[in-house]
Task: inverse folding
């Protein structure tokens, strides 16, 4: 792994926005695409910070600072990326949210960015959105896709409630569920035949590329 990739976690933990952005910008300018930057650079850096937290080598405050710094560079990257690329038609809509009491949202934000770069109109509702508010927002906006993120296993029961409620909306949206737990456990009893389970950003991009065929081929 190149040295600059190893540097990113410490830059995020120190809250060094400018140096973190310079590192990410250098990788972008070397020709790497968004999927690579998100999955191989940002996600791995935040995963390493999570590992340090589990080992009690960084504090919750450190992790929060790293997250806010990461949010800054992701927002700046997305602004520059969309400014540079050809304007794509926005014929589909996707809404992104974390289940109630779920706070980890950076992976979901990167998934949202991939949809946006592919020409989707997006709304990022962020972490900890109660079902009643998610349902109201979806009824009003009528997204084609609703993407849910959760990372705490004992929230699986409320996942079932979100899926049942959102898949029953009149506009018949596709519900995608993502997060690190998807590759570790089976959630067949918590989902429907229509629910799409995605465990990585690579799978997210593949699903986007094959939409609407992905509705049939990626359902778990």
Result:
């Amino acid at each position: 792994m190149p040295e600059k990739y190893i540097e990113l976690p410490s830059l995020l933990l120190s809250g060094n926005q400018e140096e973190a952005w310079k590192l990410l910008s250098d990788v972008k300018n070397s020709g790497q695409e968004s999927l690579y930057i998100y999955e191989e650079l940002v996600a791995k850096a935040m995963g390493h910070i999570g590992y340090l937290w589990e080992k009690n080598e960084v504090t919750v405050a450190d992790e929060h600072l790293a997250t806010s710094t990461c949010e800054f560079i992701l927002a700046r990257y997305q602004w520059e990326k969309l400014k540079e690329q050809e304007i794509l038609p926005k014929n589909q809509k996707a809404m992104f949210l974390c289940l109630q009491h779920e706070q980890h949202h950076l992976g979901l934000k990167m998934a949202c960015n991939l949809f946006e770069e592919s020409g989707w109109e997006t709304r990022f509702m962020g972490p900890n959105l109660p079902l009643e508010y998610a349902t109201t927002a979806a009824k009003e906006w009528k997204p084609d896709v609703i993407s849910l993120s959760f990372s705490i296993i004992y929230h699986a029961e409320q996942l079932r409630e979100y899926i049942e409620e959102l898949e029953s909306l009149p506009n018949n949206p596709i519900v995608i569920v993502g997060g690190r737990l998807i590759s570790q456990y089976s959630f067949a009893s918590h989902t429907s035949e229509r629910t799409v389970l995605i465990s990585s950003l690579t799978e997210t991009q593949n699903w986007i590329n094959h939409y609407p065929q992905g509705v049939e081929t990626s359902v778990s």
User: Anything to note?
Assistant: Residues 214-220 have pLDDT under 50 and may be disordered.
